[in-house]
Amino acid sequence: MSEGILNLHNHTPFSDGAYLIDEIVEAHQKCDFEVAGVGISDHLFCTPSSREVKSEKEFERIFGKETRDYVRQVHEARQRWDGEMQIYCGAEINWPLNKTMLDTIKAMLDGIDYVLFEYVDWAGLTQLANQARRWPCPVVLAHTDVTEAFPNTSMDQVVRTLANARIVYELNSKLLPLSQHERWFKVLPNHRVQLALGTDTHDDLSVLRDLPQMHEFACEHGLKEKLFCPKIRAEEPQAVSR
Ligand SMILES: [Zn+2]
Ligand SMILES: [Zn+2]
After folding, report:
1. Which 3-state string (H, E, C) describes the chain?
2. Domain spanning 5-226: which superfamily?
3. CA of 148 to the centre of ligand 2 (A)
4. Confidence (pLDDT) at 238
């Protein structure tokens, strides 16, 4: 793979982003640094604005088609940009709203290359850690300030939990300024935890300018070899019936 940066956290109008996949890719191409790939990571499944779901059946009925439509759109964009920009198909999942549906969700991820979990508390992280290695694609802990999210847990314990479960940690623009996370970034490189970079692009493309400093920060902290690069999964989602 080239030396360029991967930005794995971008939203489109499929969820709450303002720019189409093509517009996001074009904006990355216009950057004055090299971008090696763009990950689309729209919110899937239950969100604060979706309606309440009571059963697994209902969950599948409501979100199954939506998820397949999303995957198809991202895969089509991948084809369109073939040879120009590598596009990854991610998804962001709200932990509190979906934590009871994990088994159902796991079976709905055909064609998705990685999942970002947001708003995970310590109980959630331990639950996720117990099963993350059995997920069909890599699991990423999204935009988490570990001091804030896990106030009663030592950084050492957090990093060990991530490492054992092979959960990827995301360095997100939301964590800027990065100087306030020095303590965590002294602990993180001591264990085998991969690092994803993401800007959480919604309606402001100027966040892409944060990428070089995030990448540099990662390299300065010895994480260059641990930068996460998803593997492309099944070109087309499986047939609808199962
Ligand atoms: Zn988020
Ligand atoms: Zn996001």
Report:
1. CCCCEEECCECCCCCCCCCCHHHHHHHHHCCCCCEEEEEECCECCCCCCCCCCCCHHHHHHHHHHHHHHHHHHHHHHHHHCCCCCEEEEEEEEEHHHHHHHHHHHHCCCCCCCEEEEECCCHHHHHHHHHHHHHCCCCEEECCCCHHHHCCCCCHHHHHHHHHHHCCEEEEEHHHCCHHHHHHHHHHHHHCCCCEEEECCECCCHHHHHHHHHHHHHHHHCCCHHHECCCCCCCCCCCCCCC
2. Metal-dependent hydrolases (3.20.20.140)
3. 18
4. 53
Q: Give 227-239 pLDDT, tens digit per residue.
A: 999 999 976 545 5
What letter represents residue 68's amino acid?
Answer: R
Ligand 1 center–CA 92 separation, angstroms: 7
* Ligand 1 center–CA 143 separation, angstroms: 7
Report the pLDDT value the prediction gives residue 52, as an integer from 0 to 100: 83
Average per-residue pLDDT for the chain: 95
The pLDDT value given to residue 62: 94
Ligand 1 centroid, distance to 11 Cα (angstroms): 10
**Share above pLDDT 90 across residues of the chain, in percent, rounded to a whole number:** 93
Across 29-38, 50-59, 122-131, least confident range:
50-59
pLDDT given at position 1: 43
The CA 235 to ligand 2 mean position distance, Å, reads 24
Domain ranges of the chain: 5-226
Q: Which pTM does this prediction carry? A: 0.95
